Amino acid sequence: MQFPLTLTHVLARTEKLFGAVEIVSRRPDSSIHRSSYGEVCARARALASALSAASLERGDRVGTLMWNHAVHLEAYLGVPVAGCVLHTLNLRLHPDELAYIIKHAGDRVLIVDETLLPVYEKLRGQIHPERVIVVSVRGQLPFPECESYGDFLTQGKPGYELPQLDENEAAAMCYTSGTTGVPKGVVYTHRSVILHSLAAALPDAFAIAQADSVLPVVPMFHANGWGVPFAAAMVGSKLVLPGPRLDPVSLLDLLDQEKVTRSGAVPTVWMAILAALDEHPGRWKLQPGLRVLCGGSAVPESMFRAFDRHGIELIHAWGMTELSPLGTVCHLKSSLVDRPESERMATRLKQGLQAPFVEIRAMVGDQEVPWDGETLGELEVRGPWIASSYYNLPDLQERWTTDGWFRTGDIVNVDPEGYVKIADRAKDLIKSGGEWISSVDLENALMGHPAVREAAVVAIAHPKWAERPLAAVILKDGCRAEPEELRAHLSQKFSRWQLPDAFVFLEEIPRTSVGKFQKSRLREMFAGWEWDQTAGGSA
Ligand code: ADP
Q1: Ligand 1 midpoint to CA 456 (Å)
Q2: Fewest C-beta in 10 Å: which of 120, 122, 242, 374?
Protein backbone atom coordinates (compact mmCIF):
# COMPACT_ATOMS: atom_id res chain seq x y z
CA MET A 1 0.00 0.00 0.00
CA GLN A 2 1.18 3.51 -0.65
CA PHE A 3 1.21 5.01 2.81
CA PRO A 4 3.30 8.01 3.82
CA LEU A 5 6.12 7.23 6.24
CA THR A 6 5.95 10.29 8.46
CA LEU A 7 6.65 11.28 12.04
CA THR A 8 3.04 12.44 12.23
CA HIS A 9 2.05 8.79 12.39
CA VAL A 10 4.68 8.10 15.08
CA LEU A 11 3.39 10.99 17.18
CA ALA A 12 -0.24 9.91 16.93
CA ARG A 13 0.45 6.26 17.64
CA THR A 14 2.84 6.86 20.52
CA GLU A 15 0.55 9.28 22.31
CA LYS A 16 -2.37 6.91 21.92
CA LEU A 17 -0.58 3.73 23.00
CA PHE A 18 2.25 4.83 25.26
CA GLY A 19 1.02 8.09 26.77
CA ALA A 20 1.90 6.93 30.29
CA VAL A 21 5.47 5.85 29.51
CA GLU A 22 7.99 8.01 31.35
CA ILE A 23 10.41 10.52 29.89
CA VAL A 24 13.03 11.31 32.51
CA SER A 25 15.23 14.38 32.19
CA ARG A 26 18.12 15.44 34.35
CA ARG A 27 18.03 19.18 34.92
CA PRO A 28 21.22 21.27 35.08
CA ASP A 29 20.90 21.53 38.89
CA SER A 30 20.91 17.71 38.90
CA SER A 31 17.24 17.38 39.90
CA ILE A 32 15.16 14.86 37.98
CA HIS A 33 12.16 15.98 35.93
CA ARG A 34 9.60 13.34 35.05
CA SER A 35 7.14 13.65 32.23
CA SER A 36 5.57 11.18 29.82
CA TYR A 37 4.97 10.60 26.13
CA GLY A 38 1.44 11.90 26.76
CA GLU A 39 2.82 15.25 27.88
CA VAL A 40 5.65 15.38 25.37
CA CYS A 41 3.36 14.60 22.43
CA ALA A 42 0.74 17.14 23.55
CA ARG A 43 3.43 19.79 23.85
CA ALA A 44 4.92 18.74 20.50
CA ARG A 45 1.50 19.43 18.96
CA ALA A 46 1.37 22.80 20.74
CA LEU A 47 4.83 23.61 19.38
CA ALA A 48 3.74 22.69 15.85
CA SER A 49 0.69 24.88 16.21
CA ALA A 50 2.73 27.80 17.56
CA LEU A 51 5.23 27.50 14.71
CA SER A 52 2.38 27.65 12.26
CA ALA A 53 0.88 30.68 14.05
CA ALA A 54 4.34 32.29 13.82
CA SER A 55 3.90 31.90 10.05
CA LEU A 56 6.59 29.28 9.59
CA GLU A 57 6.06 27.41 6.40
CA ARG A 58 6.81 23.97 5.07
CA GLY A 59 10.55 23.40 4.89
CA ASP A 60 11.48 26.29 7.19
CA ARG A 61 14.33 25.52 9.53
CA VAL A 62 14.08 25.64 13.32
CA GLY A 63 17.45 25.51 15.08
CA THR A 64 17.78 23.88 18.50
CA LEU A 65 20.63 24.71 20.84
CA MET A 66 19.81 22.23 23.55
CA TRP A 67 21.06 19.37 25.67
CA ASN A 68 19.25 16.03 25.84
CA HIS A 69 15.97 16.53 27.69
CA ALA A 70 12.21 16.30 27.28
CA VAL A 71 11.84 19.69 25.60
CA HIS A 72 14.39 18.71 22.98
CA LEU A 73 12.31 15.59 22.38
CA GLU A 74 9.25 17.82 21.95
CA ALA A 75 11.16 19.70 19.25
CA TYR A 76 12.31 16.40 17.68
CA LEU A 77 8.65 15.56 17.15
CA GLY A 78 6.87 18.92 17.05
CA VAL A 79 9.05 20.70 14.50
CA PRO A 80 8.84 17.98 11.79
CA VAL A 81 5.11 17.34 12.24
CA ALA A 82 4.55 21.05 11.58
CA GLY A 83 6.24 20.49 8.22
CA CYS A 84 9.31 22.41 9.42
CA VAL A 85 12.88 21.14 9.65
CA LEU A 86 14.48 20.37 13.00
CA HIS A 87 18.04 21.68 12.80
CA THR A 88 20.01 20.46 15.79
CA LEU A 89 23.01 22.65 16.56
CA ASN A 90 26.25 21.41 18.02
CA LEU A 91 26.63 23.61 21.08
CA ARG A 92 30.31 22.72 21.44
CA LEU A 93 31.37 24.33 18.19
CA HIS A 94 33.24 27.60 18.06
CA PRO A 95 30.76 30.52 17.96
CA ASP A 96 31.96 31.59 14.50
CA GLU A 97 31.37 28.09 13.17
CA LEU A 98 27.94 27.90 14.80
CA ALA A 99 27.01 31.28 13.37
CA TYR A 100 28.13 30.12 9.93
CA ILE A 101 25.97 26.98 10.23
CA ILE A 102 22.88 28.88 11.43
CA LYS A 103 23.22 31.35 8.57
CA HIS A 104 24.00 28.68 5.99
CA ALA A 105 20.93 26.69 7.04
CA GLY A 106 18.81 29.86 7.16
CA ASP A 107 17.28 29.01 10.56
CA ARG A 108 14.20 31.23 11.06
CA VAL A 109 13.68 30.28 14.69
CA LEU A 110 16.12 29.28 17.41
CA ILE A 111 15.14 27.34 20.53
CA VAL A 112 17.83 27.73 23.17
CA ASP A 113 18.36 26.23 26.63
CA GLU A 114 18.63 28.83 29.37
CA THR A 115 21.99 27.32 30.37
CA LEU A 116 23.24 27.83 26.82
CA LEU A 117 22.45 31.54 26.71
CA PRO A 118 26.19 32.27 27.16
CA VAL A 119 26.80 30.34 23.91
CA TYR A 120 23.98 32.26 22.23
CA GLU A 121 25.41 35.54 23.53
CA LYS A 122 28.64 34.91 21.63
CA LEU A 123 26.70 34.40 18.40
CA ARG A 124 23.96 36.93 18.57
CA GLY A 125 25.91 39.70 16.88
CA GLN A 126 26.37 37.48 13.83
CA ILE A 127 22.92 35.94 13.33
CA HIS A 128 19.41 37.29 12.86
CA PRO A 129 16.77 34.63 13.46
CA GLU A 130 13.20 35.98 13.59
CA ARG A 131 12.44 34.38 16.94
CA VAL A 132 14.71 33.34 19.79
CA ILE A 133 12.82 31.12 22.19
CA VAL A 134 14.38 30.30 25.55
CA VAL A 135 13.62 27.10 27.42
CA SER A 136 13.87 28.47 30.87
CA VAL A 137 13.49 27.06 34.34
CA ARG A 138 14.47 30.28 36.11
CA GLY A 139 12.69 32.65 33.72
CA GLN A 140 15.84 34.24 32.34
CA LEU A 141 15.26 36.34 29.22
CA PRO A 142 18.38 38.49 29.15
CA PHE A 143 18.19 39.86 25.60
CA PRO A 144 15.33 41.88 24.09
CA GLU A 145 14.85 39.38 21.23
CA CYS A 146 14.31 36.47 23.62
CA GLU A 147 10.89 35.08 24.50
CA SER A 148 9.93 32.22 26.73
CA TYR A 149 9.26 28.76 25.34
CA GLY A 150 6.35 28.31 27.75
CA ASP A 151 4.67 31.45 26.37
CA PHE A 152 5.46 30.49 22.80
CA LEU A 153 3.68 27.15 23.26
CA THR A 154 0.46 28.96 24.13
CA GLN A 155 0.45 30.96 20.90
CA GLY A 156 -0.92 28.25 18.64
CA LYS A 157 -4.41 28.43 17.21
CA PRO A 158 -7.15 26.45 18.96
CA GLY A 159 -8.26 23.48 16.89
CA TYR A 160 -5.02 23.39 14.91
CA GLU A 161 -4.68 20.22 12.87
CA LEU A 162 -1.34 18.85 11.85
CA PRO A 163 -0.69 19.17 8.12
CA GLN A 164 -0.79 16.12 5.85
CA LEU A 165 2.84 15.63 4.93
CA ASP A 166 4.50 13.92 2.04
CA GLU A 167 7.07 11.39 3.22
CA ASN A 168 9.71 13.04 1.06
CA GLU A 169 9.44 16.37 2.83
CA ALA A 170 12.42 17.38 4.96
CA ALA A 171 12.08 16.53 8.66
CA ALA A 172 15.50 17.27 10.10
CA MET A 173 18.98 18.40 9.31
CA CYS A 174 22.42 18.14 10.85
CA TYR A 175 25.82 19.53 9.99
CA THR A 176 28.83 17.24 10.07
CA SER A 177 30.97 18.08 13.05
CA GLY A 178 33.78 19.33 10.86
CA THR A 179 36.38 16.66 11.68
CA THR A 180 37.16 16.94 7.99
CA GLY A 181 36.81 20.36 6.38
CA VAL A 182 33.95 22.86 6.58
CA PRO A 183 30.71 21.76 8.24
CA LYS A 184 28.32 20.35 5.66
CA GLY A 185 24.56 20.16 6.09
CA VAL A 186 22.67 16.92 5.59
CA VAL A 187 18.88 16.93 5.25
CA TYR A 188 16.78 13.95 6.35
CA THR A 189 13.26 13.35 5.10
CA HIS A 190 10.34 11.89 7.06
CA ARG A 191 10.76 8.73 5.02
CA SER A 192 14.49 8.45 5.77
CA VAL A 193 13.94 9.08 9.48
CA ILE A 194 11.22 6.43 9.69
CA LEU A 195 13.12 3.80 7.75
CA HIS A 196 16.23 4.55 9.79
CA SER A 197 14.24 4.21 13.03
CA LEU A 198 12.81 0.87 11.93
CA ALA A 199 16.27 -0.44 11.06
CA ALA A 200 17.91 1.00 14.19
CA ALA A 201 15.34 -0.62 16.50
CA LEU A 202 15.90 -4.13 15.07
CA PRO A 203 17.27 -6.82 17.40
CA ASP A 204 20.46 -7.09 15.36
CA ALA A 205 20.94 -3.33 15.39
CA PHE A 206 20.39 -1.28 18.54
CA ALA A 207 17.67 -3.67 19.75
CA ILE A 208 15.25 -1.10 21.15
CA ALA A 209 11.90 -2.48 22.33
CA GLN A 210 8.98 -0.89 24.13
CA ALA A 211 10.00 -2.45 27.45
CA ASP A 212 13.46 -0.90 27.29
CA SER A 213 14.68 2.06 29.26
CA VAL A 214 16.93 3.97 26.89
CA LEU A 215 19.59 6.50 27.83
CA PRO A 216 21.15 8.28 24.85
CA VAL A 217 24.34 9.89 26.16
CA VAL A 218 25.22 10.80 22.61
CA PRO A 219 24.01 14.38 22.27
CA MET A 220 20.76 14.89 20.39
CA PHE A 221 22.68 17.43 18.29
CA HIS A 222 25.11 14.79 17.04
CA ALA A 223 23.77 12.95 13.98
CA ASN A 224 20.17 12.76 15.27
CA GLY A 225 21.45 11.40 18.58
CA TRP A 226 22.29 8.38 16.37
CA GLY A 227 18.56 8.08 15.65
CA VAL A 228 17.93 6.76 19.15
CA PRO A 229 15.30 9.35 20.25
CA PHE A 230 13.28 8.78 17.06
CA ALA A 231 13.53 4.99 17.36
CA ALA A 232 12.60 5.07 21.06
CA ALA A 233 9.61 7.34 20.38
CA MET A 234 8.50 5.03 17.56
CA VAL A 235 8.47 1.93 19.75
CA GLY A 236 7.36 3.80 22.88
CA SER A 237 10.27 2.95 25.15
CA LYS A 238 11.11 4.97 28.24
CA LEU A 239 13.73 7.64 27.57
CA VAL A 240 16.23 8.82 30.15
CA LEU A 241 17.82 12.09 29.06
CA PRO A 242 20.92 13.21 30.95
CA GLY A 243 20.82 16.97 30.25
CA PRO A 244 24.20 18.64 30.56
CA ARG A 245 25.51 16.31 33.27
CA LEU A 246 27.72 13.92 31.36
CA ASP A 247 30.27 13.04 34.04
CA PRO A 248 30.58 9.30 34.69
CA VAL A 249 29.14 9.38 38.21
CA SER A 250 25.98 11.25 37.12
CA LEU A 251 25.54 8.88 34.19
CA LEU A 252 26.06 5.78 36.32
CA ASP A 253 23.53 7.12 38.86
CA LEU A 254 20.98 7.41 36.05
CA LEU A 255 21.85 4.02 34.56
CA ASP A 256 21.25 2.49 37.98
CA GLN A 257 18.23 4.48 39.23
CA GLU A 258 16.27 4.46 35.98
CA LYS A 259 17.02 0.77 35.32
CA VAL A 260 18.49 1.56 31.93
CA THR A 261 18.72 -1.35 29.48
CA ARG A 262 20.05 0.48 26.37
CA SER A 263 22.51 3.32 26.15
CA GLY A 264 24.75 4.84 23.50
CA ALA A 265 27.91 6.95 23.62
CA VAL A 266 31.29 7.46 21.97
CA PRO A 267 34.24 5.39 23.27
CA THR A 268 35.73 8.22 25.35
CA VAL A 269 32.53 8.46 27.44
CA TRP A 270 32.48 4.71 28.04
CA MET A 271 36.17 4.77 28.99
CA ALA A 272 35.39 7.25 31.76
CA ILE A 273 32.39 5.19 32.89
CA LEU A 274 34.43 1.99 32.99
CA ALA A 275 37.13 3.75 35.02
CA ALA A 276 34.48 4.92 37.53
CA LEU A 277 33.03 1.39 37.78
CA ASP A 278 36.48 0.04 38.57
CA GLU A 279 37.11 2.78 41.08
CA HIS A 280 33.88 2.22 43.03
CA PRO A 281 33.14 -1.50 42.89
CA GLY A 282 29.58 -2.34 43.94
CA ARG A 283 28.39 1.28 44.09
CA TRP A 284 25.97 0.94 41.17
CA LYS A 285 23.56 -1.86 40.36
CA LEU A 286 23.24 -2.01 36.59
CA GLN A 287 20.51 -3.95 34.80
CA PRO A 288 21.56 -7.51 33.91
CA GLY A 289 20.37 -7.01 30.31
CA LEU A 290 22.17 -3.68 29.82
CA ARG A 291 23.50 -3.25 26.29
CA VAL A 292 25.56 -0.28 25.30
CA LEU A 293 26.03 1.04 21.86
CA CYS A 294 29.40 2.45 20.97
CA GLY A 295 30.51 4.15 17.78
CA GLY A 296 31.78 7.40 16.36
CA SER A 297 35.33 6.10 16.50
CA ALA A 298 36.83 2.64 16.79
CA VAL A 299 36.37 0.67 20.00
CA PRO A 300 39.67 -0.67 21.37
CA GLU A 301 39.96 -4.29 22.47
CA SER A 302 40.71 -3.20 26.04
CA MET A 303 37.24 -1.65 26.16
CA PHE A 304 35.54 -4.83 24.97
CA ARG A 305 37.38 -6.74 27.67
CA ALA A 306 36.44 -4.21 30.35
CA PHE A 307 32.75 -4.41 29.39
CA ASP A 308 32.95 -8.21 29.36
CA ARG A 309 34.42 -8.08 32.85
CA HIS A 310 31.47 -6.00 34.05
CA GLY A 311 28.96 -8.26 32.27
CA ILE A 312 27.74 -5.45 30.00
CA GLU A 313 27.13 -6.19 26.34
CA LEU A 314 28.79 -3.76 23.95
CA ILE A 315 27.39 -3.23 20.47
CA HIS A 316 29.93 -1.74 18.07
CA ALA A 317 28.47 0.32 15.24
CA TRP A 318 29.76 2.54 12.48
CA GLY A 319 27.98 5.51 11.03
CA MET A 320 28.22 9.01 9.68
CA THR A 321 26.11 12.14 9.78
CA GLU A 322 25.52 11.60 6.06
CA LEU A 323 24.00 8.18 6.90
CA SER A 324 21.47 9.40 9.50
CA PRO A 325 23.90 7.88 10.92
CA LEU A 326 23.56 4.07 10.96
CA GLY A 327 25.73 2.15 8.47
CA THR A 328 26.96 -1.08 10.04
CA VAL A 329 26.48 -2.90 13.34
CA CYS A 330 28.59 -5.69 14.74
CA HIS A 331 26.75 -8.75 16.00
CA LEU A 332 28.25 -12.20 15.78
CA LYS A 333 26.41 -14.36 13.27
CA SER A 334 25.11 -17.61 14.75
CA SER A 335 27.73 -19.47 12.73
CA LEU A 336 30.52 -17.56 14.50
CA VAL A 337 29.51 -17.76 18.16
CA ASP A 338 31.29 -21.07 18.74
CA ARG A 339 34.59 -19.97 17.20
CA PRO A 340 37.64 -19.65 19.48
CA GLU A 341 37.72 -16.56 21.66
CA SER A 342 40.51 -14.87 19.71
CA GLU A 343 38.56 -15.17 16.46
CA ARG A 344 35.38 -13.90 18.06
CA MET A 345 37.25 -10.93 19.49
CA ALA A 346 38.78 -10.18 16.10
CA THR A 347 35.28 -10.04 14.60
CA ARG A 348 33.79 -8.02 17.45
CA LEU A 349 36.49 -5.39 16.92
CA LYS A 350 35.22 -4.84 13.39
CA GLN A 351 32.52 -2.32 12.62
CA GLY A 352 30.12 -5.04 11.54
CA LEU A 353 27.58 -5.94 8.91
CA GLN A 354 25.70 -3.52 6.72
CA ALA A 355 22.24 -2.70 8.13
CA PRO A 356 19.29 -3.82 5.98
CA PHE A 357 18.96 -1.48 2.99
CA VAL A 358 22.48 -0.14 3.35
CA GLU A 359 24.49 -1.28 0.34
CA ILE A 360 28.27 -1.26 0.59
CA ARG A 361 31.30 -1.71 -1.59
CA ALA A 362 35.01 -1.06 -1.04
CA MET A 363 36.67 0.56 -4.02
CA VAL A 364 40.11 1.27 -5.38
CA GLY A 365 39.58 3.61 -8.31
CA ASP A 366 36.59 2.19 -10.13
CA GLN A 367 37.34 -1.42 -9.08
CA GLU A 368 35.58 -3.11 -6.19
CA VAL A 369 38.09 -4.92 -3.94
CA PRO A 370 37.44 -8.56 -3.00
CA TRP A 371 35.88 -9.43 0.36
CA ASP A 372 39.04 -11.15 1.61
CA GLY A 373 39.42 -9.35 4.93
CA GLU A 374 42.71 -7.84 3.76
CA THR A 375 42.52 -5.70 0.66
CA LEU A 376 41.85 -2.08 1.54
CA GLY A 377 39.50 0.15 -0.40
CA GLU A 378 37.39 3.24 0.19
CA LEU A 379 33.97 2.37 1.56
CA GLU A 380 31.09 3.54 -0.60
CA VAL A 381 27.48 3.23 0.51
CA ARG A 382 23.98 3.85 -0.71
CA GLY A 383 20.53 3.36 0.71
CA PRO A 384 17.26 5.04 1.66
CA TRP A 385 18.67 7.04 4.59
CA ILE A 386 21.94 8.04 2.99
CA ALA A 387 22.20 11.63 1.78
CA SER A 388 22.44 12.22 -1.95
CA SER A 389 23.92 15.72 -1.63
CA TYR A 390 24.91 18.32 0.91
CA TYR A 391 22.54 21.15 1.66
CA ASN A 392 23.25 24.05 -0.68
CA LEU A 393 26.82 22.94 -1.48
CA PRO A 394 26.60 21.90 -5.13
CA ASP A 395 30.40 22.04 -5.48
CA LEU A 396 30.77 19.09 -3.12
CA GLN A 397 28.88 16.67 -5.35
CA GLU A 398 32.17 14.79 -5.97
CA ARG A 399 31.54 12.94 -2.70
CA TRP A 400 28.96 10.95 -4.74
CA THR A 401 29.78 8.71 -7.68
CA THR A 402 27.90 9.26 -10.90
CA ASP A 403 25.94 6.07 -10.15
CA GLY A 404 24.80 7.42 -6.79
CA TRP A 405 27.13 5.88 -4.17
CA PHE A 406 28.37 8.07 -1.32
CA ARG A 407 32.15 8.04 -0.89
CA THR A 408 32.61 7.80 2.85
CA GLY A 409 36.32 8.66 2.99
CA ASP A 410 36.80 5.62 5.26
CA ILE A 411 39.36 3.03 4.23
CA VAL A 412 38.18 -0.49 4.99
CA ASN A 413 38.49 -4.15 4.28
CA VAL A 414 35.53 -6.52 4.17
CA ASP A 415 35.95 -10.14 5.21
CA PRO A 416 34.32 -13.09 3.45
CA GLU A 417 31.47 -13.06 6.03
CA GLY A 418 30.74 -9.43 5.14
CA TYR A 419 32.17 -7.80 8.28
CA VAL A 420 33.54 -4.34 7.53
CA LYS A 421 36.70 -3.23 9.27
CA ILE A 422 37.60 0.45 9.24
CA ALA A 423 41.37 0.80 8.90
CA ASP A 424 41.32 4.57 8.92
CA ARG A 425 39.89 7.70 7.50
CA ALA A 426 41.59 8.20 4.15
CA LYS A 427 43.44 11.22 5.46
CA ASP A 428 44.58 9.49 8.67
CA LEU A 429 46.24 6.48 7.02
CA ILE A 430 50.00 6.64 7.32
CA LYS A 431 51.94 6.12 4.12
CA SER A 432 55.43 4.95 4.97
CA GLY A 433 57.82 4.05 2.16
CA GLY A 434 54.92 3.11 -0.11
CA GLU A 435 53.19 0.92 2.51
CA TRP A 436 50.03 1.82 4.38
CA ILE A 437 49.90 1.71 8.17
CA SER A 438 46.57 1.84 10.01
CA SER A 439 46.63 4.37 12.82
CA VAL A 440 43.47 2.82 14.31
CA ASP A 441 45.11 -0.59 14.75
CA LEU A 442 48.14 0.96 16.46
CA GLU A 443 45.91 3.02 18.76
CA ASN A 444 43.85 0.03 19.75
CA ALA A 445 46.93 -2.01 20.54
CA LEU A 446 48.48 0.84 22.53
CA MET A 447 45.31 1.23 24.57
CA GLY A 448 45.70 -2.45 25.45
CA HIS A 449 48.90 -1.65 27.38
CA PRO A 450 48.14 -1.52 31.11
CA ALA A 451 49.76 1.91 31.59
CA VAL A 452 48.02 3.62 28.66
CA ARG A 453 44.75 5.44 29.09
CA GLU A 454 44.42 6.92 25.60
CA ALA A 455 46.49 6.94 22.44
CA ALA A 456 46.23 8.60 19.04
CA VAL A 457 48.62 7.88 16.20
CA VAL A 458 49.22 10.30 13.35
CA ALA A 459 51.34 10.51 10.23
CA ILE A 460 54.15 13.04 10.35
CA ALA A 461 56.22 13.95 7.29
CA HIS A 462 59.54 12.12 7.10
CA PRO A 463 62.41 12.96 4.73
CA LYS A 464 63.10 9.35 3.78
CA TRP A 465 59.83 7.42 4.21
CA ALA A 466 57.36 10.18 3.22
CA GLU A 467 55.48 9.68 6.50
CA ARG A 468 56.11 7.89 9.76
CA PRO A 469 53.78 7.23 12.70
CA LEU A 470 53.98 9.35 15.83
CA ALA A 471 52.03 8.16 18.87
CA ALA A 472 50.53 10.66 21.30
CA VAL A 473 49.88 8.86 24.58
CA ILE A 474 48.11 9.70 27.82
CA LEU A 475 49.23 7.47 30.66
CA LYS A 476 46.93 6.32 33.44
CA ASP A 477 47.30 8.18 36.71
CA GLY A 478 50.41 7.07 38.58
CA CYS A 479 51.64 4.86 35.70
CA ARG A 480 54.87 5.09 33.74
CA ALA A 481 55.93 3.58 30.44
CA GLU A 482 58.98 4.27 28.32
CA PRO A 483 58.78 4.42 24.51
CA GLU A 484 60.86 1.24 24.25
CA GLU A 485 58.39 -0.65 26.41
CA LEU A 486 55.48 0.54 24.29
CA ARG A 487 57.32 -0.43 21.12
CA ALA A 488 57.99 -3.87 22.56
CA HIS A 489 54.29 -4.21 23.44
CA LEU A 490 53.29 -3.26 19.90
CA SER A 491 55.86 -5.51 18.28
CA GLN A 492 53.87 -8.54 19.49
CA LYS A 493 51.31 -7.63 16.82
CA PHE A 494 53.05 -5.39 14.30
CA SER A 495 56.12 -5.57 12.08
CA ARG A 496 59.04 -3.36 12.94
CA TRP A 497 58.38 -0.92 10.08
CA GLN A 498 54.84 -0.34 11.31
CA LEU A 499 55.85 0.73 14.82
CA PRO A 500 55.70 4.40 15.77
CA ASP A 501 59.18 5.96 15.77
CA ALA A 502 58.16 8.69 18.14
CA PHE A 503 56.10 8.68 21.33
CA VAL A 504 54.97 11.89 22.96
CA PHE A 505 53.36 11.84 26.36
CA LEU A 506 50.56 14.35 26.77
CA GLU A 507 48.18 15.37 29.54
CA GLU A 508 45.37 15.67 27.00
CA ILE A 509 44.77 14.75 23.37
CA PRO A 510 42.93 17.45 21.42
CA ARG A 511 39.36 16.43 20.67
CA THR A 512 36.62 17.46 18.31
CA SER A 513 33.28 18.76 19.55
CA VAL A 514 31.90 15.24 19.64
CA GLY A 515 34.82 13.74 21.53
CA LYS A 516 36.90 12.23 18.75
CA PHE A 517 40.67 12.63 18.60
CA GLN A 518 41.38 15.73 16.54
CA LYS A 519 44.15 14.31 14.44
CA SER A 520 44.47 17.39 12.25
CA ARG A 521 45.43 19.35 15.38
CA LEU A 522 47.94 16.67 16.46
CA ARG A 523 49.50 16.72 13.00
CA GLU A 524 49.86 20.50 13.29
CA MET A 525 51.34 20.24 16.79
CA PHE A 526 54.05 17.84 15.69
CA ALA A 527 54.65 18.99 12.12
CA GLY A 528 58.38 19.39 11.53
CA TRP A 529 59.22 16.66 14.08
CA GLU A 530 62.97 15.98 14.14
CA TRP A 531 63.15 12.26 13.37
CA ASP A 532 65.98 10.10 14.53
CA GLN A 533 67.29 9.26 11.06
CA THR A 534 68.40 5.76 12.02
CA ALA A 535 64.95 4.66 13.11
CA GLY A 536 61.91 3.17 11.45
CA GLY A 537 60.89 2.89 7.86
CA SER A 538 59.74 0.06 5.68
CA ALA A 539 62.52 -2.44 5.31
P1 ADP B 1 32.61 13.94 11.52
O2 ADP B 1 32.70 13.49 10.08
O3 ADP B 1 32.55 15.39 11.63
O4 ADP B 1 33.63 13.28 12.44
P5 ADP B 1 30.59 11.98 11.91
O6 ADP B 1 30.03 11.69 13.23
O7 ADP B 1 29.70 11.96 10.76
O8 ADP B 1 31.24 13.38 12.03
O9 ADP B 1 31.80 10.98 11.70
C10 ADP B 1 31.75 9.86 10.88
C11 ADP B 1 33.08 9.20 10.87
O12 ADP B 1 33.42 8.70 12.17
C13 ADP B 1 33.16 8.00 9.97
O14 ADP B 1 33.39 8.36 8.63
C15 ADP B 1 34.32 7.22 10.58
O16 ADP B 1 35.57 7.72 10.11
C17 ADP B 1 34.21 7.51 12.04
N18 ADP B 1 33.54 6.41 12.75
C19 ADP B 1 32.26 6.34 13.12
N20 ADP B 1 32.02 5.18 13.77
C21 ADP B 1 33.18 4.49 13.81
C22 ADP B 1 33.58 3.23 14.35
N23 ADP B 1 32.75 2.42 15.00
N24 ADP B 1 34.86 2.86 14.16
C25 ADP B 1 35.73 3.66 13.52
N26 ADP B 1 35.42 4.86 13.01
C27 ADP B 1 34.16 5.28 13.15
Answers
A1: 15
A2: 374
